[in-house]
Amino acid sequence: MEFFENVKKRRAGVLVSLPSIVSEHSFECGDIYSLIPLCDWAKDVGFSIIQLLPLNDTGFGYSPYSAISAFAIDPLYISLYKLDLNVKSRKREIRSLENHPIRIRNLKLEIIRKYYLENKKEATREATYFLEKHPWCYSYAAFRLLYEENHGSGWWEWPKEFQNPNHAKEYIFSEKRNEALFWVYLQKVAYDQLSEVKVHFEDSGVYLKGDMPILTSRNSCDVWEHPEYFIMDLQAGAPPDDFSKTGQTWGFPVLNWEVLEKSNYSWWKDRLSYLENFFHLYRIDHVIGMYRIWSIPKEDDTALKGWFHPQFGISKEEFINEGLDPKRFESLGLIHEFKSDHYIFYWDFWKEAAYQELNEETKAKLYPLSELHIKEEEKHWRESGEKILEIFESFSSMVPCAEDLGSVPSFIRESLFERQMIGIDVVRWTKSFTTGEFIPEASYRKNAISVLSTHDTSLVLDWWKNEGDLESKLQFFFDRLKKPRPKTEDQILLGLLSFVLGTSSLFSIQLFQDLALGVPSVLENPEKHRINLPGTADHSNWTYRFPVLFEEFASDFKRNLTLRKLLLDSGRNP
């Protein structure tokens, strides 16, 4: 426990997409073994947190935030080297910035399957024991086998008898037990490897931070087995804003917190308990969704006709009390009956031509109804979110960190502040509410993580070169501090790293690519080193591979010395 208690000190860390970190002992892409040299380098330089993106099995997809299991580790990350399988990648140097995860996973599965069959007696014994200790793997193995056989199609499109998880599990583990146990064995191997890595980190005094997506793919083992935990006719998303006039639709079913509460949140407890086998801290993805979430009919292509769930809505009686017939406004496309005799107003309904054409007397009665329950709903949302977060904290000794980016309502920001949840501040977006200008280092939230970039943004050098006003950046990050204006990419990056590490934030965790001092490919073409571009096709993202073997990167004396000095100067080398 002392190791956990010591984490809340001024620290610096590195955020990595694990498949991008290729080591000498990797097979085609980064894997669990890659974390060993990464940890050793971090320890040597002075970083004491390594943050990972989710490691969940993505099936035929690519995004780790749309996995087919909330528990299972992707077999892609199993280290063949740690299994003593002396299989080398086809090429010993990195020639492409792109991984092919499905191809690599299939090659690994072929190699591990051969090993499994050669050691079948011992391997099946280990798999059976693991299954007894981790019952979630029972449904995962059945789902994964059927998912493969049905070529990744949605479970609702499978033969009817396999849409019933109880029947499917019974069938698979009686008729195809050996194949099912192979998928269990893969999870057992991944569990062993990652939990051993955690011990190595603890011995080194470095903390490992995981990631827990709040939402789950509709086509996942969890939704297949427990559809009652989800509101299946809704999808989560985000309302319209300056970045998207029609909002965002994510396709994930909305969590049914009422049903989850009746089960004492057992699904969440099991998830957190499992994560704790591997991590010391964890990121709660889209923490705003713990309070309320933008919910849209699942068949809609835009988020315009959504609402914040859960919502009280305006009752039919409340309309009638104002002398208004709600059916009239529903026919005009201004409101929606989301449950019997209760209506929500569509986002920006007052901008619609149908609203503008109403007479002023009607507008004067209708508009106030849209704001009728705001205060009591905000009170309810706050209480609900705090209850969920408190329960989460009781389930695990891991330190939670809240992803609180985007338009965060004041009541949620106040709640997170009072709960002392560690938030996140992205330098390019952290500006004064009054002037709109960048804020100085000392004005950053103390209980937060300062970052230059995230997995969803451009690299900081790409932002510097191609986004926003360059002159204002130069004045703030260099002129203000009486530093000479940078003439090279290395000098730009050095100045920005010095700034972000110097903020008053408790932690400062930087994307690995933003530490690539002296790596020409990254410095000259940062746009080619992005992990994910939200809103674009899944297969065009999540395939990034760093252009240098990690051991080669870690052996650069000059870069290590520069980073070590930055960390010492910022007081982040505990």
From TrEMBL:
Keywords: Carbohydrate metabolism, Cytoplasm, Glycosyltransferase, Transferase. Its EC number is 2.4.1.25. It is found in: Cytoplasm. One of its GO terms (molecular function) is 4-alpha-glucanotransferase activity. One of its GO terms (cellular component) is cytoplasm. It catalyses: Transfers a segment of a (1->4)-alpha-D-glucan to a new position in an acceptor, which may be glucose or a (1->4)-alpha-D-glucan. This is 4-alpha-glucanotransferase. It comes from Leptospira kanakyensis. The lineage of its organism: Bacteria, Pseudomonadati, Spirochaetota, Spirochaetia, Leptospirales.
